[in-house]
Design brief:
Shape: globular
CATH superfamily: NAD(P)-binding Rossmann-like Domain
CATH class: Alpha Beta
Order of helices and strands: HHEHEHEHHEHEHEHHHEEH
Strand order of the largest sheet: 3-2-1-4-5-6
Strand content: 5-15%
Number of domains: 1
Mean pLDDT: 94
Number of helices: 12
Largest sheet: 6 strands, parallel
Structural class: alpha/beta
Distance between the termini: 42 Å
């Protein structure tokens, strides 16, 4: 009962801004812009569905060479077929919940031939059932936060980014419902697993990582974080069917959800010194509720925890 009331309050609080109503209200004040990504190489994770698919195809349409990551080779093949310029779309099959597979990605031929100009850390899953990966991690934790962390750090350490590269982290408005935590993100005990809470924690951590990377890398590459609002994707239909059915008239489509990704990549606004998260081309605060602030977890603790998790996987015998 308490959970239902809290969810109702949350959705009512953000309906006007996260829904298609918020997008249309914001878009009414925008000037048209025609992005030109010619000569750029984009790397898009979770590229076979929803926002990731739209991002890959649109960046390709506007001139980019796109490396599309996904775990389903058939879906990747269909993505390439749908591309306006299929020779510029390079599918790479990889399980983005596998840390061992991710650390090998910088050595892929597609990534070694040209530096990455734009990395879109888009992949994300909300699981209703508890699952462990073959490496012993809770699957959504591995996919949503540890995998993107390992991938981004590996590309940086292997000097795979171009001189003016941009990392765009795709978070979620759900992160407003969670403070920053560490161990609780990787719930390996099915008895205590809550898929919605886990997703919110992972997306909160993505916002925090953005601030960490900007403080460490000083714009080389620059890192921005955005959230797409409430988008009617296949993942939402599967993971949150009640949410999708109830709010369907107000959910955004993938084009609306991805808009800020292209705006960030084209306009390159300064990274916010005090943090924040982009929605509909506007910088929004990282916190909306007092309970998510100042919970005692420092950025250094988050990074140390993620590095420890990755190290434990890489040092353990392969299954």
């Amino acid at each position: 009962m308490i959970r239902s009331i809290a969810s109702l309050f949350f959705y009512a609080r953000f309906l006007r801004s996260f829904s298609t109503l918020g997008y249309r209200r914001a878009a009414a004040e925008w000037e048209d812009f025609a992005p030109d990504f010619g000569g750029q190489t984009w790397l898009v994770t979770g590229a076979t569905g929803g926002i990731g698919r739209h991002t890959a195809l649109t960046a390709n349409q506007h001139g980019a060479r796109v490396i599309a990551l996904g775990r389903n080779p058939e879906a990747l093949a269909k993505l390439k077929e749908a591309a306006g310029y299929p020779r510029r779309l390079l599918p790479v099959t990889v399980d983005l919940s596998s840390i061992r597979a991710i650390v090998e990605l910088p050595d892929q031929r597609a990534m070694k031939s040209k530096p990455i100009d734009v990395l879109v850390n888009n992949v994300g899953v909300l699981l209703n059932q508890h699952e462990l990966t073959g490496e012993g991690l809770e699957r959504s934790f591995a996919t949503n936060i540890l995998g993107p962390f390992v991938l981004t750090e590996a590309l940086q350490s292997e000097q795979r980014f171009s001189g003016k590269a941009l990392v765009i982290n795709v978070s979620s408005g759900g992160m407003y419902g969670s403070p920053l935590v560490t161990e609780a993100m990787n719930c390996t005990d099915a008895r205590h697993f809550d898929g919605m809470a886990a997703y919110a924690r992972h997306k909160r951590a993505m916002v925090a990582l953005t601030r960490w990377w900007n403080s460490q890398w000083q714009g080389a590459p620059a890192v921005q974080v955005m959230h797409p609002g409430w988008v009617d994707t296949a993942g939402v239909q599967t993971s949150l069917p009640w949410f999708q059915r109830t709010l369907k008239p107000w959910l955004r489509d993938a084009e609306q959800g991805a808009d800020t990704i292209f705006w960030l990549a084209e306009k390159r606004p300064p990274t916010p010194g005090e943090g924040g998260i982009w929605l509909d081309r506007q910088l929004q605060p990282e916190h909306e509720f007092a309970f998510t602030r100042n919970n005692g977890v420092a950025l250094e603790q988050l990074v140390a925890y993620l590095r420890q998790c990755a190290q434990q996987v890489l040092e353990s015998p392969a299954g």
